[in-house]
Design a protein that fits this description.
The complex is a heterodimer of chains A (95) and B (302). With 95 residues, chain A is α+β, with helices and mostly antiparallel strands. Chain A has a single domain, classed as Alpha-Beta Plaits, CATH 3.30.70. In chain A, 19% of the residues lie in helices and 41% in strands. Chain A starts with a strand and ends with a strand. Chain B has two domains: 133 residues, ATPase, nucleotide binding domain (Nucleotidyltransferase, domain 5, 2-Layer Sandwich), CATH 3.30.420; 110 residues, ATPase, nucleotide binding domain (Nucleotidyltransferase, domain 5, 2-Layer Sandwich). Helix content of chain B is 35%, strand content 19%. Chain B has eight helices and ten strands. In chain B, helix 6 crosses helix 7. Chain B is globular. The chains are: A alpha+beta (95), B alpha/beta (302). At the A-B interface, strand 1 and strand 3 of A face strand 9, helix 6 and helix 8 of B.
Chain lengths: 95, 302
C-alpha cells in the first residue's frame, strides 16, 4: 500500500510517499530524520498488523515546512537515501 | 408552516438520519459481525450476517465519540431482534475509531472504505473517492478491495461535506436538494476562486449581489469543489471503474461534475432510498463489518 503523506494547496504539492509493501520496518529512516518526523506505525494489511514507516500526525499538515530543509525536490532526503528497500520517495512541486 | 424551505428556523444543513433492515432472516447459527464508522459529521454502523449486509443506521456525530458510536450501533440494531451481545466481533473505524468503546479492533477508514466499495460495487472498482464531512480521500484498490495507493486531503475543509452544509444554510436550500439545484443552470459558470468554508459567506454574498441566481452560485461552488476532488484523483492515478463514497456520494451535482472533469462515468450509485439498496455513505461501516468477520474467523482457526 502506497501512502501519500502531505497535501496539495495553493502553494503547490508536497508529499512524502511510503510504500508499505516494500518497507521492512527497519527504522533507519526514523533514526536519521533530523526533524523526528518519521516514526514506525502499525498498519493493518491483509488481516495482519505490520510495522512500517510513517510520517507523524503532527507533521502531515505542515510537511512543506517540516521536510523542506532536506532537499525533497531532488528526492535526496536522508530518509530516502537511508532506505535499503527504496520504500520512501518525495513528490515536491512548489508553484 | 407550508412547504419545506419556508419553515422559520429551519436548519437547511440538517440531513436525514435513518436506519434500514434488509429483507432477510437470521438464525442463531449465523455469524453476526458489525462495523462502526465514526466520522466527523456522520456516525454509521452496519450489521452483517455471514458477511452479507443486514442492517445499518446513520446518525449525526455528536461532541462525544463513544456516545455517537453507541448511538449508531443501537440504531442499526433497532427492530432487528438482535442484541449487542449477539455480535461476535466489532471493528471500529473512521476519524473517531479509537473512541469506539465496544470495538474489538480499530482499523483505518482507508482500508474499510476500500473493502466496502468492493462489496457495494463488486471487483471492477479500482478508484474510490471518499468525500467525508471534513476530508477527501482518493483510494486506489485491486479486485479484492485491497488498498494499493491512497492520499487524503484533510488540511482544509473546502470541498467536503461540511462545506456543503455551510452552503446549504447560506442559500437556505435543504442539503438533500443541493445537488439537483446546482445542475439547474443553462450554462455552467466559472468555478469560484475561493472554496474556503470560512469565506463561503463572503464569496456567496458577493455573487448574489452581482445578480447571480442561487442556482448559479451553487453551480460555481460545486464546480470548484469537484475540481479539487478531480485533482486529488489525478494525483493518485485514475483507473476505471470509479466510484464515490461518503455523504457527498448523494450529491448528484458533485458526482456528475467529477464525471465531466475526468471524462469517465462512475459506476451507478445505488439509490439508498430504494428498499434493498445499499448506501455508499455506509461503505466504511460495511467494510469494517467484513473485516470483523474475517478477523473472527481467523481467531477461530488459530
Amino acid at each position: 500500500m502506497i501512502t501519500h503523506y502531505g497535501y496539495i494547496d495553493g502553494s503547490g504539492e508536497y508529499y512524502i510517499v511510503v510504500d508499505s509493501d516494500k518497507c521492512s520496518g527497519c527504522g533507519k529512516c526514523v533514526q536519521i530524520c533530523p526533524q523526528k518526523a518519521v516514526l514506525l506505525e502499525t498498519e493493518f494489511i491483509d488481516l495482519e498488523d505490520k510495522t512500517v514507516a510513517a510520517i507523524a500526525e503532527e507533521h502531515r499538515k505542515k510537511i512543506r515546512y517540516t521536510c523542506g530543509t532536506c532537499k525533497p525536490e531532488q528526492n535526496q532526503t536522508p530518509c530516502v537515501l537511508a532506505c535499503d528497500s527504496k520504500a520512501i520517495k518525495c513528490i515536491w512541486n512548489p508553484k | 408552516m407550508t412547504e419545506a424551505g419556508t419553515v422559520k428556523g429551519q436548519e437547511f444543513w440538517r440531513w436525514q438520519e435513518y436506519h434500514r433492515i434488509m429483507p432477510k432472516k437470521w438464525t442463531n447459527k449465523d455469524l453476526i459481525t458489525a462495523g462502526v464508522d465514526v466520522g466527523s459529521v456522520g456516525s454509521k454502523a452496519a450489521i452483517m450476517v455471514n458477511g452479507e449486509a443486514y442492517s445499518w443506521g446513520i446518525t449525526r456525530t455528536g461532541s462525544n465519540s463513544p456516545e455517537s458510536a453507541t448511538k449508531a450501533l443501537s440504531y442499526a440494531l433497532e427492530g432487528t431482534g438482535l442484541k449487542a451481545s449477539d455480535i461476535k466481533y466489532i471493528v471500529g473505524t473512521g476519524y473517531g475509531r479509537v473512541n469506539v468503546p465496544m470495538a474489538n479492533k480499530a482499523i483505518t477508514e482507508i482500508a474499510c472504505h476500500a473493502k466496502g466499495a468492493n462489496y457495494i460495487w463488486g471487483p471492477t472498482v479500482r478508484t474510490v473517492l471518499d468525500v467525508g464531512g471534513q476530508d477527501i480521500k482518493a483510494i486506489r484498490i485491486d479486485e479484492t478491495g485491497r488498498v494499493t495507493s491512497f492520499l487524503m486531503n484533510d488540511k482544509c475543509a473546502a470541498g467536503t461535506g461540511r462545506g456543503m452544509e455551510v452552503f446549504a444554510d447560506l442559500l437556505q436550500i435543504p442539503i438533500e436538494d443541493i445537488g439537483g439545484i446546482s445542475l439547474k443552470v443553462e450554462k455552467e459558470p466559472e468555478p469560484v476562486s475561493c472554496t474556503c468554508v470560512a469565506f463561503a459567506k463572503t464569496e456567496a454574498m458577493g455573487l448574489l449581489r452581482k445578480g447571480w441566481t442561487k442556482e448559479k452560485v451553487l453551480a460555481a461552488y460545486t464546480r470548484a469543489m469537484a475540481v479539487r476532488m478531480a485533482n486529488l484523483i489525478n494525483r493518485v492515478g485514475l483507473e476505471k471503474e470509479l466510484v464515490v463514497t461518503g455523504g457527498q456520494s448523494k450529491n448528484i451535482g458533485i458526482v456528475s461534475r467529477i464525471e465531466v472533469i475526468l471524462g469517465v462515468k462512475c459506476l451507478p450509485m445505488p439509490n439508498w432510498r430504494d428498499e434493498g439498496s445499499l448506501d455508499p455513505m455506509v461503505a466504511g461501516a460495511l467494510g469494517a463489518a467484513l473485516f470483523a468477520k474475517a478477523l473472527y474467523e481467523k481467531a477461530q482457526k488459530a
